[in-house]
Write a structure and sequence with these properties.
The chain has helices spanning about 5-20, 25-35, 45-60, 60-75, 80-95, 100-105, 115-125, 135-150, 170-205, 205-220, 225-235, 240-250, 250-260, 260-265, 290-310, 315-330, 335-340, 345-365, 380-385, 395-420, 445-455, 480-485, 510-520; strands at about 270-275, 280, 460-465, 470-475, 490-495, 500-505, 525. The protein is mostly helical.
Length: about 525
Amino acid sequence: MNGKVFGGLQRLGKALMGAVAVMPVAAILMGIGYWIDPDGWGANNIAAAVLIKAGGAVLDNLGYLFAIAVAFGLARQSNGAAALSGWLGYKTVMLLIGESSVAGYKGVDLGTLEGTAKLDWVSQGWGAINDKNALIGILIGLLAAWTYNRFSTTKLPDFLAFFSGRRLVPILTSLFAIVFSGVMFIVWPLLYHVLFSFGQWIVALGPIGAGIYGVVNRLLIPTGLHHALNQIFWFPVAGINDIGNFLAGSKTIEAAAAATDATSCAALGAAHWTGSACEVVGYVGMYQGGFFPIMMFGLPGAALAMYLTAQDSKKKVTGALMFAGALASFFTGVTEPLEFAFMFVAPALYAVHAVLTGISVALAAAFHWTAGFGFSAGLVDMVLSSQNPVASKWYMLLLMGVVYFFIYFFVFYFLIKKFGMKTPGREDDSVDAEEALTVNASDAEKAQAIIAGLGGAANISVLDYCATRLRVTVKDDSAVRESAIKAVGVAGIIRPTGKNVQVVIGPQVQFIYDAAAAELGNANVALNGEQAA
């Protein structure tokens, strides 16, 4: 893949995380609300009602969140004018091609639709053009960011000078949003049909489809493109919206009770129509539940195996890294520090990990063991979702997790030993004494070592970061010394293209980035995706 294209995808992935990172707020608020009032879901307790509705403020406005986050994240200087433009552009689209507006254009009375006419209308997907549409939000965010980057320095004639520069961006975005709406008026039914058909094909496969999703989700982790796949299953892009429907809890149950046919039941994503009723408990959450045994138990089991198979001289450092990664995976569901530790040095192990993940997701779906998350499948989200009325036998996921701990441990231990895989602590390459750092080194020391390993400040043209990785563009890829970077105790190094280097740090990546940015000082380096001076 072209380095420039890959770099653009990296930045998009980071921008998407700006919206995804807000999801835990909804999970926490709604989880506590359901905990306080597990029967009335806010009807019996004012505090619970406030918390549940406050969480809904996030879930009910996902489209705006993605539009603002993408626009803000991709715009130069991450300027507020881009974020405002993202909001304005999305609002324009909602008003122009929302379901009621399109119905008015076409002379359709939504209140009288029934039978074949109703099914035909639903299949066009206009009902999905609402405040929750993450896909439209992403597209508008891209449009707003492009508008800002292209026109924020534009000068107008003196009589229009007030509207020059950044003030021009929201104006142009609203105009471009009108054009975008016209295009989507034609394209959306076709696009929605493709996405909806793919999503429903997977849904129709039941647990097998969920397992396929689990495998592909893990296989896409190295590229960062799993975010795109997740949009289809976790958000209301193709009508599945597994996270939204799960966290909505009582609303989802009420909507299921009100469903009168297979069509209205299908609007709830993974819901199951029995012929007379719409079931959501045990179904909604099927694209999330099976990840808990992997992240809370399976990967920590793999970490123990990698520690025990490490060379004696490297056990201390390896143990510290594995313990930190296992702790992050168990409590928060952040798995990259562990996955990248063996992803490239032992790809066969990663393939096994992907298959085991698919089996876990499929088994959880088959037995209707469901739990959901606002961030990832760690202990925090498990505790919060346990009181959600849509959760089903969530405790069985913990029992399955214990089994998975031993499966991962014995499989990894056997394969590492049998085939001599070079997992952490078993590498052949040695680190020069002057390069070696302890895992207890300060952020500044680690940043200095990483910069040196990247060929020095003069060799770095772009320094950025996402949820767990430093993302770097270097001028001369031959000057990169991976051994020096690994000496810091990073989880892994990825070289997606010649001049693009990703240093996998983990959840503490922001602090390493801040230290590196301070170390670079006045060097001609583009920081946080900005253009170098």
